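Marked as duplicate of an earlier ticket. Keeping the data here for the record.
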Amino acid sequence: MAFDPEHPWDLFLKAAGWPQYGQRVGFPDGTDTADGITVGSNPADKQVIVQLDKKHFNPAPGQRVCFYVLVGSQDGYGPDHFRPVAKEAGPWNLGGAENEDAPLVVDYLWPEKGVQEAMLSRYGGGRHAVLKPYCVAWP
């Protein structure tokens, strides 16, 4: 999987259940920190709650911001802590991939139906699925 080359990421948030490796803020220079991020949940409302300190992200009202929101299956021993996706499901991998070039991402949050499925299914033959960011004006 790859990101749209016209929209590289500026800030990376990892929101997984394990604080040791899953609650991180990453920066394009390769550094990261656990400082300023809190990950929690509200099971009754089926919510994952990510709080980020304004020192890392504080856009002005009306500023255009773009997001990539990736969802995968957490695996503490998998690549980037994601469970691999293969053609057939196994004890330590998900199934359903068309071939071995499958992205580790099983869902990509996008408001319009069918768009994320199309983006995630364009891979194979050494070619990666390329995700486009979802952009909004910050409230």
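See parent ticket for discussion. DSSP finds two helices and eleven strands in the chain.
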